[in-house]
């Protein structure tokens, strides 16, 4: 026989299933992203047999996250964090492929074709539109939109590598400043004004799933890309159109990864 407590249990179970349904629907885009990247990873694994273990080591965290998905514990944050982890892991994975020069560059092109830079920029802008007021003051959407417009002009040959580098570096500086402000808001007792990437990661990363590890790992690529953008902007470094395109796409993918690795509740 049931009792009144069973009514509450039944209600709780239905509410859990409804939330699971909603989280699964919201996560569809993330599932599509993850699935496409797993397929790409399998292609890379089979194409470069001598680097198989090194490649698997690079993508271990997001694969473990995907395996751990369970209907009983799943929520939207897990899908978001796993997606960010996949994008971050791809940085190291692509580095392995690039070590061969242009021999396997078709694999890089396959990866970049999964999402256009313009599509990811629109996703990033949608995320930035939800920022709380003191972070929205940085106006990162407007600066990123200007960089997107510059990218379109650059592809058409209207502007130079230098101008495009200046536009995207301007966004990079503002975006990083915004992340530092979010870190200070999370721990208002912090008096240090240094913009420490590891400390920012520790303050803002999602809990579990290797998100903190992946967010910290981005620092090296972040510093390298910023230096490249600076030198190209100042015209002390020359790159081909193909190289500039790759730098721009890498950075946009990196920004998207960062936004998925951090706890959204700390910036909204």
Give the topology.
Elements: H1 4-26, H2 28-47, H3 52-58, H4 60-68, H5 76-98, H6 105-113, H7 117-128, H8 133-136, H9 140-155, H10 161-186, H11 197-204, H12 211-233, H13 241-261
Helix pairs in contact: 2-5, 4-5, 5-12, 5-13, 7-9, 7-13, 9-10, 10-11, 10-12, 11-12, 12-13
Give a short overview.
This protein is mostly helical.
Explained architecture:
- The chain has 268 residues and is mainly alpha-helical.
- It has 2 domains: 1-114, no CATH class; 116-268.
- It has 13 helices and no strands.
- The chain has helices at residues 4-26, 28-47, 52-58, 60-68, 76-98, 105-113, 117-128, 133-136, 140-155, 161-186, 197-204, 211-233, 241-261.
- Helix 9 (140-155) packs antiparallel against helix 10.
């Amino acid at each position: 026989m049931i009792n009144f407590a069973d009514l509450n249990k039944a209600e709780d179970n239905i509410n859990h299933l409804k939330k699971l349904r909603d989280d699964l629907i919201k996560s569809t885009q993330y599932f599509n992203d993850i699935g496409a990247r797993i397929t790409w990873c399998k292609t890379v694994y089979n194409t470069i047999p001598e680097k198989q273990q090194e490649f698997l080591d690079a993508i271990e965290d997001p694969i473990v996250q995907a395996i751990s998905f369970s209907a009983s514990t799943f929520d939207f944050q897990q899908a978001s964090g796993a997606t960010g982890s996949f994008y971050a892991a791809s940085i190291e994975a692509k580095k392995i492929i690039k070590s061969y020069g242009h021999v396997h560059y078709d694999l890089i092109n396959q990866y970049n074709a999964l999402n256009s830079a313009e599509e990811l920029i629109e996703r990033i802008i949608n995320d930035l539109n939800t920022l709380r007021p003191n972070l929205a003051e940085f106006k990162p959407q407007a600066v990123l939109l200007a960089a997107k417009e510059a990218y379109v002009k650059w592809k058409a040959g209207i502007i130079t590598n230098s101008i495009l580098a200046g536009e995207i570096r301007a966004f990079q500086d503002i975006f990083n400043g915004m992340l530092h402000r979010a870190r200070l808001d999370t721990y208002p007792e912090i008096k240090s004004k240094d913009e420490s990437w590891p400390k920012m990661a520790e303050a803002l990363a999602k809990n579990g799933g290797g998100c903190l590890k992946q967010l910290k790992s981005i620092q090296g690529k972040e510093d390298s890309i910023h230096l490249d953008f600076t030198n190209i902007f100042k015209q002390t470094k020359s790159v081909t159109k193909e190289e500039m395109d790759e730098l721009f796409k890498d950075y946009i993918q990196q920004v998207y990864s960062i936004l998925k690795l951090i706890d959204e509740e700390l910036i909204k």
